[in-house]
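Usage

Read records sequentially. Each one opens with the input sequence:
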Amino acid sequence: MVLYPILIAFLLYFSSIPIAFALFASALIYFIFGNTGSPVDLVLQRFITSTASFPLLAVPFFIMAGSIMNYSGISSRLMKMADVLTGHMKGGLAQVNVVLSTLMGGISGSANADAAMQSKILVPEMEKRGYGKAFSAAITAASSAISPVIPPGINLIIYALIAQVSVGQIFLAGYIPGFIMCICLMFTVSLISKKRDYKPSRDKRASFKEIVLQLRESIWALFLPFGIILGLRFGVFTPTEGGAMAVLFCTLIGFFVYKELKISHFKEILKDTILGTSTVVLIIVSASIFGYYMTWERIPQNVSRFLLDITNNKYLMLLFINIIFLVIGMFLEGGAALIILAPLFVPVVVGLGVDPVHFGLISIVNIMIGGITPPFGSMMFTTCSITGVSVIEFVKEVIPFIIALLVALLIVTYLPWVVLFLPNLVY
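and closes with the structure output:
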């Protein structure tokens, strides 16, 4: 009976109830009917106080910065930069798609926002150039999995709050795994493009002069993620203040450098920010109540004991946890899966000698793969709904990209120095 709130949460979720409401309702039912020893007022108080987190303020700031990027012309310049670098390759626009997601990772930090933007901008252009619509949707969803891994990804901030690790360290740890995912996807695109004879988007490789000119135009956008990291490292600002600085920086660039941002755009920017923030925060506070129930029943401790009884070999444990994350990620939204599962597994892996920063990147790469897999992958549904591709067609095309991302996951899991090199170098 201790586990019935978990069953209720899944039943509600599979009944098309949003995950935030499913988590909150199942926990509330437990505290009203199952555990009368804890006053309901205390549960509701915890629901409210869980929002009173200063680091959590970074979430709306970075979401707002990403939205401003789209209206200020910075996103379009990043796409041109990606085209200059990779447009001459086989499957040029598909390669641009991957590189653009990697560059956008340092700006929006949201997989769904990245998938939605590229579904509207790049997929129609890819269709015109002879790429299959399902292939275009598949690479758009797969490449969007890179965005939350590269700072300032929202999931990086959430994990840092859960595991009580340095936001600066977890930010730095995201760069190399993000680039590994990019390389794996680009290699897969190249193989498929050669087989299907997808043409490059440029007739020839860009000259050194073209690259320098485009770099000069895009340098302001490319500077943003590195500026945030440097500011955090040298104590110029906190992660929350870094989000506010990102908003200020993007606004100034949009108004005074590119001159494409208008006052009239801020109505839509605020709407995007409110919608994005409310979704994330509602899941976080609902998962906080659900976590309160699990802590009350000592479920994390019991799970730890159970897993350690199976094996105390950290490599086997990481493989086992990866499989659990992959399966759960197919059904739950990435942020919710991270919030529910990370508190269960962090004590286990830390006890076996795994660095919590390393495990954070394993977890985040894992749940991003879940976002493009059926039956409930969020990026899968985002791209399919915007492009009009059926889920069946999408799944057929996305399988090679899932395999590529699984290879990246194995590298991140079993080569910890890849993840920890930059944090150890800087800190």
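Summary fields computed downstream for this record:
- The two ends are 46 Å apart (CA to CA).
- The chain has a mean pLDDT of 82.
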